[in-house]
Amino acid sequence: DSASLADRIAAVAAELGRGDSSEALDVFVQVDTSQEDTKGGVSPTDAVELARHIATACSPSLRLAGLMTIGAPGDMSAFDRLRQTRDDVASALGVPSDQLALSMGMSGDFEEAIRQGATSVRVGSLIFGARPPAKPKAS
What we know:
The protein is an alpha/beta fold. The chain has 5 helices and 3 strands, in the order αβαβαβαα.
């Protein structure tokens, strides 16, 4: 599950000296705001529990930097859901909302994501062009 993955990442970061003499490794929790089969992440309701786990059990080697999502194409409400989830997480952790980054928006919707409060966007296909279609895996 997601907490056990966070624990594994924290253990590797700690083995490599993160959190001791150097800064913690920044991590983002991916939130499934669109409920598409092709997208991953925790549900908005499970995000608070995972964020709390990272902030407590995985410190000091990991630092919860924020939340991220890849919404369904054309579904701008994913940005609202992520922003609300960030506010819920911040409240649960007792930190200001603006202390947690929002990574949302891609090449096709980054402008709206910025209007909705994104602190980070992913625009690789605008820079490098569209990805070639995935090749089917050999059976």
